[in-house]
Amino acid sequence: MKPQDFHAAITFLSAATLADPFLALCSAVAWLDPLALLDEPLIEPDYYAGGDEWVNIGAAWDISRVCFPAVYAETTQAIRTESSSQRLADQVCTAINRHLVGGELHDLEQIFFGIPFFGLGVDLTDTDFFASPQYTPLVEVYAWLGVAVDPEQTYSLPDNLPEAAQVADVLAFSLRQTGHPTHEKLAWLLDWMFSQTGNTAADYTDEEIYEMGIQPLAWEPNELEFNNLMHAEAAEIIGNAMQGLDLLLADDGLQAELRANVESLSKQMKRIKKEKPHDRPQPDAQRLSRSLCWTDRPQQPDEQRSPDDLEGLQVRRADAA
Predict the structure, then answer these.
(1) How many Cα atoms within 13 Å fall on the side-chain side of residue 90?
(2) What contacts 224, CB < 8 A, 6 or more positions away?
(3) Around Cβ 240, how many Cβ atoms within 10 Å?
(4) Per-residue pLDDT tens over the stretch 39-72
(5) How far is Cα of residue 122 from the mean position of the Cα atoms in its chain?
(6) Burial of 148 (0-12, 13-18, 19+ CB in 10 A)
(7) Interior/surface letters 6-20, b for 16+ CB within 10 angstroms, e for the rest
């Protein structure tokens, strides 16, 4: 068959296909959504090729169809035009990362190990953590709560950490009862410092998550939504905690109140422990917090806005974007 005859045959078959509504629809599906024609996954989720880029691309392509429709469309088009597997793998990896919150794929090969999950908790045994300028002041705050932290050497968890965590829990409860924004942020700081926020990503480090055997979430839309919401909430919690740290360090009066309330609360808990040495109930935060005092703080500029002002500000920003 001559080349021109082959071309004529292809043209004829294409025209015949498009002339039939059913075949035309099949052709459109095959072009726009090729994986829809498969009865089984293109790549099994538990399959690991050990570095084969085309296998990685296939797995990501299949996952994207369910989790990231826009990435699926981009990848479908790119597969037809891109000949370099490495370049295509990098493109797909970057496209998926645009839809992840809190973590990212460093390499498309990670696609086989579930949704990336990262712990953002405080690691009291990691000297590198406190070496970061933004976290170094935490050493002083821990000291105010009776926890000795030495950032210059590797150490184990302080023996009195559980007792200090109970004190911090009651302090956070009492701070939130005031309804003041500064106290709310300080409460989040105490929660984060003692892994008591209730958010897994904010409370644990990567090492702790690994040791606890927490498995990464599967590439499914509902799991992806949960993972993104959890990491977004963790980022908000830690953002509030760091604001609380800044406010605390800038306010000598607030520091004095914190130390005084820690001392008062510690004495109450020691007295309770002495009276009932064999009981280890959780402290009654509401009862213990009655003796704690917090002075109203001057509001920050953003805290002085009314709800209507904040709503209007958000709308203007949205319009500007």
Answers:
(1) 5
(2) 67, 99, 115, 217
(3) 20
(4) 777 666 666 556 788 889 999 999 999 999 999 9
(5) 14
(6) exposed
(7) eeeeeeeeeeeeeee
Helices in 98-220 by DSSP H: which ranges?
A: 127-131, 138-144, 161-177, 181-193, 200-203, 206-211
Q: Comparing C-alpha atoms, which of 117, 116, 113 is closest to residue 46?
A: 113
How many residues appear in the chain?
321
Q: How far, in Å, are 69, 80, 91 from residue 99 at the CA level?
A: 11, 23, 13
Q: What pLDDT is recorded for position 22?
A: 61
32/311 Cα distance (integer angstroms) = 41
pLDDT in tens, 139-154: 999 999 999 888 776 5
Amino acid at the residue 304: Q
In the chain, what's the furthest Cα-to-Cα distance?
101
In this structure, are residues 133 and 157 in contact, taking their beta carbons and an 8 Å threshold? no
**120, 233 contact by CB (below 8 A):** no
Evaluate whether 102 touches 232 at the Cβ level (below 8 Å): yes
Query: Is the CB of residue 294 less than 8 Å from the CB of residue 179?
Result: no
CA–CA separation, 152 vs 130, rounded Å? Answer: 9
Please give the model's pTM, rounded to 2 decimal places. 0.77
**Dihedral of the CA atoms 231, 193, 260, 264 (nearest 10)?**
100
d(CA 19, CA 234): 56
